Amino acid sequence: MGRILITGIAGFIGSRVAKHFLEQGEEVVGIDNLNAITDPTLKWQRLQMLGLDVEDIQDNHLVQKEQLRFYKMDLNDEEGMNQLFSDHAFNTVIHLAANTGVRNSLTQPQSYLQANVLGFEVLLRCCRAFSVNRVIFASSSSVYGMNEHTPFQEDDDASHPLSVYAASKKADELLAHTYAHLYGLSTIGLRFFTVYGPWTRSDMAAYLFMDAC
User: Fold this and answer.
1) How confident is the model at residue 14 (pLDDT cuts 50, 70, 90)?
2) pTM (2 d.p.)
3) Side by side, which strands form the sheet with 62-65?
4) Which of 71, 144, 165, 179 is catalytic?
5) Is 112 a catalytic residue?
């Protein structure tokens, strides 16, 4: 696959995707801003699971373990992002970084739009400028919003989101479509539902259901 960039590598999905590709012998570069929107302790533990020495982590500073390179970096750091793409010839970008959760988005709308929409647009610009072959990005089942048709299908109406988080993910889909149409950038969006497993957050539905039993 060539060199892979994974954004949100300290997240539940990002860390597992990174682990998979590293086990396949691929070169992986990961970035994460390690914010406190979700449990930061879990994020540090996931990075340790990938073999990184977390004591060495500083802003925009390279931490390396064999085929894995990690930078603590925010997507909205345009200068840093351009330097990252200049330093590494990425073939594939897997975008999993986001402020997640419906409830928090209602009380912190600006931070969600900054991270999820504006940050994604910075990433798309870098992918275009540095001729990335493919962008795979995380959307969300929340984009289906007021759609009452179940089970949901890919071509169901997703034009009425019911939260700022859902609206930010729908905006990402529209941005990806626009860059694909205007510039020929290959983009694939994945509408995740409730993803669970080892190293996930304890406030996810699967854990709440188990605790209630």
Assistant:
1) very high
2) 0.90
3) 62-65, 68-72, 28-32, 3-7, 90-95, 134-140, 187-192
4) 165
5) no
